[in-house]
């Protein structure tokens, strides 16, 4: 007689093995390479790096950029979400979608567009790229501004979700006894705050590990320093030591989210009747609409126009398309493989973690590959796979890029799946248990279809993130296998130009198509599976 | 002078009429029971009185002022929502303190009234619990306590005793009756169980499929 727990153990074993291969092994390889040298373990390089006085400048720059962007995104994204509520009903959905589009486009594309404009208008001299002479007083605000225009949609989305989930009766019961200001500060804000600050936390993490924008504006933050240590000096020990402050800062944010925000997010369930914006009169409605349109113009319209102007002619765009066809195909293949791996592994981990707090705690560590920055993760993968034998097959093919994207974004896929499963109504699963349906079948036949729309969204976002991925893959791309993002990265180091602008436009087109595809996939899944969400 | 006047009130949701030309009055200190099956429009009528919704046609006035005019919180209305509408981030005690703070009640009086209400509602042992930690009956008691603690002039009750045991429902009924006689508060109570409303109300409005009929309670007892 077969033990009923055997399939579950096999499933758990496979999931843990894959988790270890994707997440743990590159980190272990990295730790080994940075700490084990000359036949002995030592921390000399780490001590030397962390004792340098310039660490304070790096830390200050990194925190200024991350906190500044998070705070600015909080204001811009939160304000936009509130303004949307007061826009005419017919315009809300298209305006909301328009305001979310900048999230699809990687910040380095915006940086290229604005940088080009600044150089043309004389705000920057063309020599600055070569001479590295941008003053911090110019660079820091620019990085914060461009990162904010790229990441504010995260806060917008989280605030929008909170407002949609807000049961209007909670607000009405307060309005009967308190004035609007008290109602806002005592009822509305505390209930929405966990969602809004979660969005800001995501922005903080993304900016903390962002390499491309600070590198283009020559602001020395940890990811730039790490990339320099690796690419210019091949100092893995020093680069690994530099990641410690990032891990500490990112760890605090993740810990605070788990302890403070996540339990409070459940205060707003989606069973409520959404709050409608109160009619404010046409003047304020027009102001809200104009504000949203202005923001969309600044965040999306202006940079795309700048890129289109720089590209010049349609012939240039066609030439770029012909030249970059191979890179585009590589990018698409990479994105499909990485998104599929991320979605499958994320679901398996979330299903396993659902029944075991210990496993859930273990999987929280999947945030580490994201926090150590792309270049260092790439180095870990090089250390792991650059060996003669079967490993070399991984290292010399697109597989190594797939593993890099999977390792970097696994935490987000896992968390998305986990939240979806946590919010699943327990009764259908209990009913399946009563009818003696096995653990794996319950997951695959009951839980998975009920959360299918979330999975579709995760697949779509994983596809988009892998398509635009630069930091982790830049160190890794094997000869002859170059994704589009790396092609742009290679060219933009020679300064913004027509070729870079046209490639950026191509990338933007691909990302917008992927965004539309994700939306179609999500809504199709919702309709097909009559899902709970 | 009636405290509430319904003049030819009509309301429809997505083309389906819910209220159809309701005309009625309620005097100060009077109690009205809205009785009818689910979907008859009882909750909608309560929300119109509270000023939370606008009628499609006709007018609802409170003290001769249209219900949607002016600030909602200055009109002395207490309301128990059908699904309680409790604030999930506040403890039981904080719920009661917040509504009194909003009414600018002094700290000493606040503490005294909160204690009284906690005792009346039987929630003294749960003062630090949040709504998620309360049973359905306890949540309903909190919703009733929140509505009563502000000493409203007009009390709107939407299925207020649906989740309560008979003893607790009796205690709250007595408290509402005491306040009606002592403070002349008016009560509108929506229910589909007539018996629980009898001690509290004087008139009954039977509602069904957009039609209505108003009568005195006495002959039906």
Describe the structure.
The complex is a heterodimer of chains A (533) and B (221). A two-stranded antiparallel sheet of chain A has the order 1-2. By secondary structure, chain A is mainly α. Chain A has a domain at 64-221 and 278-311: Orthogonal Bundle (MetI-like fold). Chain A is built from 26 helices and 2 strands. Chain B is α/β, with parallel strands linked by helices and 221 residues long. Chain B has one domain (4-220): Rossmann fold (3-Layer(aba) Sandwich), CATH 3.40.50.300. In chain B, strands 6-7-8-3-9-10 form a 6-stranded mixed sheet, with helices on both faces. Chain B has a 4-stranded antiparallel sheet with strand order 2-1-4-5, with helices on one face. In chain B, helix 2 (92-102) crosses helix 3 and helix 3 packs antiparallel against helix 4. The relative contact order of chain B is 0.20. The mean pLDDT of chain B is 87. Chain A binds chain B through residues 167, 169-170, 172-179, 182, 186-187, 190-191, 264, 267-268, and chain B through 50, 52, 71-73, 77-79, 81, 83, 85-89, 98-99, 102-103, 146, 150.
Any idea what the CATH architecture of the domain at 64-221 and 278-311 in chain A is? Orthogonal Bundle
- Estimated share of beta-strand residues of chain B: 25-35%
* Shape, principal axes of CA atoms of chain A: globular
Strand content of chain A: under 5%
The number of helical runs of chain A is: 26
Largest sheet geometry of chain B: 6 strands, mixed
Name of the CATH superfamily of the domain at 64-221 and 278-311 in chain A: MetI-like
- Shape call of chain B: globular
Domain tally of chain B: 1
Give the N-to-C terminal Cα separation of chain B.
Answer: 27 Å
Query: Within the CATH hierarchy, at the fold level, what is the topology of the domain at 64-221 and 278-311 in chain A?
Result: MetI-like fold
Question: What is Rg of chain A?
Answer: 24 Å
Low-confidence stretches of chain A: none
